[in-house]
Amino acid sequence: MIGAEQPHSPLKADSGERAGRYVTIDALRGIAAVSVMFCHAVDSPVSAGLHRALPEGLLAMMLKGADGVIIFFVISGFVIAHSLRNVTLGPKGVGRFILRRQLRLDPPYWAAIGLTVVAAAAHNHFRPATATPLPSATNLFLSAMYINRILGHPRIVPVAWTLCIEVQFYLFFILLLAVGEHRSSRRGPSRRSVTLLVLTAVGSLAMNPAAFLGVSMTSYWCYFGCGVLCYWTVTQRTRPAPLWLAVAGFALALAYYRFPSSMIVGLVTLISLYGAGRMGRLSIWGSSAPLQYLGRISYSMYLVHVVVLDMLLGALSKTAATRPLLAICAACVGLALSIGVAHVFYLVFERPSIELAARFRSRPEVRYAVSDGALLVS
């Protein structure tokens, strides 16, 4: 939350949660972004040097940081259920919600597209031997609308596929609630909405992730759906049975797929959120200053770190391949520089978009600590 006013947790009346920020959500967001950043630092132009210098077990663990996106998906379901809890699903309520979401999401993303194109143009100018084509106008437009991968166009911002997936989450969730005749979360979601959510979440576990990788939300919906069920259960809007039914399906799928790390991360995140909510610790766990700082700039960090790492480490790729110590130092500098650039990016692009989106809140007299999306901090 930006501003002098200290936000309070709206879970207080429902679950015994203390008044304060949802620091656990912000901490998880920071952990997820850093995990993804470490993965891309290892899988970078200096990877050959890093493989010479670091143990294979450590490198494999760092590469698993890619599963940080699953943390984003679970907490996205939690916070979007929170954001929609008092929204009447009519044209006005839904329209304001979507407008607020896109005002919050789009400007930093569009700025990241611009930064990536500028970096690519600079690369082509100074290193013409390895020049690559710049994105077409069509690809720029489709990318800005989050539909480039659906229509078969390449990604401009490499990590932006998760944003496209999350936009699909939001829209499908609203549709599901509308079909379930959900009207006011003060009364809780309707039985039909809960049933549809459980069925779709469990059903998505049967989808082959490789068939829709980075294009469709189909095989990722289970994470978002379980996050929604977690919120509804913690705030006593539903009984625990639907959540435990979904968790049982999750556990069976986990065993069936032979315990993939992505599903383990999703289940651990879900259990952590549920435990923190039930014990009234969402405003306490993860409150350390470094975690909260990383959570605050996590969206900016997520958007810009790949282009920063590519620009810096790409220039050292040949030299670092035979100099392991140089590869380690370059990767560390790249990670630190990514955080620094993300801080500036947050101040210039993300914070203004937060303030703009806040003007369109459905209930402007109430301020909340969590954001309207898993990658965002309000």
Describe the fold and architecture:
This protein is an all-alpha fold. 65% of the residues lie in helices and 0% in strands. It contains 16 helices and no strands. It has helices at residues 12-15, 23-42, 47-53, 56-63, 68-83, 91-126, 137-144, 161-179, 191-204, 221-234, 241-256, 261-278, 289-296, 298-314, 317-321, 324-358. It is globular. The N and C termini lie close together (4 Å). The relative contact order is 0.20. Mean pLDDT is 87; it is low at 1-10, 12-19 and 364-378.
Could you name the key traits of this structure?
378 residues, mainly alpha, 16 helices, 0% strand, disordered N terminus
Distance between the termini: 4 Å
Overall body shape? globular
Rg computed from alpha carbons, rounded to a whole number of angstroms: 21 Å
Number of strands: 0
Summing up helix and strand content along with how strands pair, one would put the structural category as: mainly alpha
